[in-house]
Design goal:
With 255 residues, the protein is mostly beta strands. It has strands at residues 3-6, 13-16, 25-28, 35-36, 44-49, 55-61, 68-74, 80-85, 87-91, 99-105, 113-121, 124-134, 137-144, 150-157, 162-163, 166-167, 171-177, 184-185, 193-198, 203-208, 215-220, 226-228, 253-254. It is globular and about 45 Å long.
């Protein structure tokens, strides 16, 4: 998943993409100045810029640990440091807190993930906090709100149950305060809802097949109302999505 860093001017924007086994190239929006950031045989993925664009956090499959590791690299010096274990690291846009959110497996090799944050203090990981955990679901793909106060994520009920390589369980998009409070489910549990991305318009964008095909949808965070962004046309229109209260079939988030 690519990430973009803006450096004050509309023309000074860079995009980082990470391709398996080929390191992480940074490229200008016009396709020029491609720079390889990481190298080696390890698979590196899920890059995210620090708020000032000077550092990248990414996940890398450890050759010795056999686990997904979280690394931070300073772009000017290429100095790297491992800060923990997990996937989908994403840097908080809040410049007052050097904070990273990520998903972490409860057990090695498990598909059951919970949501964590860590603070970087003098380059070291501190205050590792489990923000959200569920007894019946995996919590995946965190995405920060523009102010860094809340996190959007997806849940997958019983992630070990697969059908043709895809999870069979209910999948929804949630939001939660960075300290673990005020949890809200934004989708209604009737379709696949994955890969949330928080925008500046107080909407969370995500991938859903609620219209019959996997398309981009968005939901306003308060009050929740879901609209298709690039949905396929249907003869009878698109189903209306409504917020539902957490019930017996919904993911059970623990306090």
């Amino acid at each position: 998943m690519p990430d973009a860093a803006r450096e004050g001017d509309a023309h000074e924007c860079r995009v980082c993409t990470v391709e398996p086994h080929d390191g992480g190239p940074i490229v200008d929006l016009d396709g020029r100045n491609v720079i390889q950031v990481t190298s080696g045989p390890a698979q590196d993925m899920h890059p995210s810029f620090s708020p000032d664009g000077s550092r990248l956090v990414y996940a890398s499959m450890g050759s010795r640990s056999g686990q997904w590791e979280i690394w931070v690299v300073t772009l000017a010096t290429r100095e790297r440091r491992m800060v923990g274990y997990g996937l989908f690291p994403t840097w908080s846009p809040d410049k007052t807190a050097d904070r990273i959110a990520f998903q972490r497996a409860r057990q090695r090799g498990s598909r059951w993930f919970s949501l964590w944050t860590l603070d970087l203090i003098d380059g070291e990981a501190r205050r590792m906090t489990e923000v959200a955990v569920s007894s019946n679901s995996a919590i995946i793909s965190p995405s920060w709100s523009p102010d860094g106060k809340r996190i959007a994520f997806s849940t997958v009920v019983d992630p070990a149950q697969m059908n043709k390589g895809k999870p069979r369980g209910q999948q929804d998009v949630w939001i939660i305060d960075a300290d673990g409070g005020n949890r809200h489910r934004l989708t209604d549990g009737t379709s696949t809802c994955l890969s949330p991305c928080w925008a500046n318009d107080s909407r969370v964008y995500f991938i859903s097949d609620r219209g019959g095909h996997e398309n981009v949808w968005s939901v306003h965070t308060d009050p929740p109302s879901v609209w298709p962004v690039a949905a396929a046309k249907m003869q009878n229109g698109l189903p209306e999505a409504k917020k539902t209260e957490i019930g017996s079939t919904a993911p059970e988030l623990e306090k």
